[in-house]
Design brief:
alpha/beta; Arc Repressor Mutant, subunit A; Rossmann fold; 36% helix
């Protein structure tokens, strides 16, 4: 994580701060991940400062920012960029649960109708998945494998649900586990269904997430279930987020709400994906 600061205020990570003139070689993907981390923390970045930080040209940084803007992850301003996600993703869990709450709860209720007594589920982190689990409190003999601490805590109050919380690295802001340990533990399980929260779903770019650290966990979950159910409110439809999880063909059922982009939904439905609107 970015822990120290240059004299001009730009945050950098521990390795890079050993010496201002010592540059660390990063892949394009890693550099762009770092840019998003800075944006998440500071809300804005400057081309000239990023160029110094990464030891690359300003042209390269502008290309990075343009590509991230095309993905909907930031907005360009003169000399730099501002985060398009900062407002929502810097909210507390409670605040994010209140955002589009009515739509999310209707989606959750519909998703719960697809779950039967005795099912085994995988569930990733997210407010809509948390609402879905709340709707399952009366389901009998249910087993849930999740990387979400919030979901594990919620189901601790339910008698008929057995929860397996994946270990590994922990993201305290978004309350999920990730990394090699989580993936290795996940490889021991198979489940009937996956309830998957995403930040973007489109025909061309598939299912995507803002949380690049969680993308591998979500991808492995999808590979280890018989049916993938995506729960996504209207703001996610037709949108592409930062990290790719899977192609659109990896989705069996998409549950959204009536405000969703109908044109995009029609395209998705042509790929033999069941669409449910609530």
């Amino acid at each position: 994580m970015f822990a120290e600061q240059y004299s001009d205020g730009l945050i950098c990570d521990e390795v890079m701060c050993m010496h201002e003139m010592e540059k660390v070689e990063l892949s394009v993907e890693d550099r762009r991940n770092k840019i998003i981390e800075i944006l998440t923390q500071q809300g804005r970045v400057k081309v000239v400062e990023l160029s110094k930080l990464f030891g690359t040209s300003e042209v390269t940084i502008r290309n990075d920012l343009s590509e991230l803007e095309n993905m909907g992850l930031l907005g360009r301003i003169h000399g730099g960029a501002v985060s398009a996600y900062r407002a929502y993703y810097n909210m507390s869990l409670h605040e994010r649960m209140k955002t589009n709450e009515e739509e999310k709860r209707r989606i959750a209720l519909e998703a719960s109708k697809l779950i039967s007594d005795g099912d085994t589920l995988m569930v990733n982190s997210g407010t809509t998945t948390l609402f879905t689990v709340q709707e399952l409190r009366s389901t009998k003999n249910l087993t849930i494998v999740t990387n979400s601490l919030s979901i594990a805590q919620e189901t601790g109050h339910y008698r008929n649900i057995h929860v397996i919380l994946l270990g590994g690295n922990f993201d305290p802001q978004y309350q999920f586990t990730y990394g090699d340990d989580a993936i290795n533990q996940l490889s021991r399980y198979r489940a009937d269904k996956l309830i998957l929260s995403v930040d973007g779903i489109s025909l061309n770019n598939g299912i995507t997430t803002f949380h690049h650290l969680e993308a591998d966990v979500s991808r492995q979950m999808a590979a280890r279930v018989n049916k993938t159910i995506v729960v996504a409110d209207y703001t996610k439809i037709g949108r592409t987020s930062f990290a790719h999880i899977n192609s659109i063909d990896g989705v069996d059922i998409l549950i959204s709400d009536q405000k969703a982009n109908q044109e995009e939904l029609n395209k998705i439905a042509k790929r033999n994906i069941e669409i449910r609107l609530v």
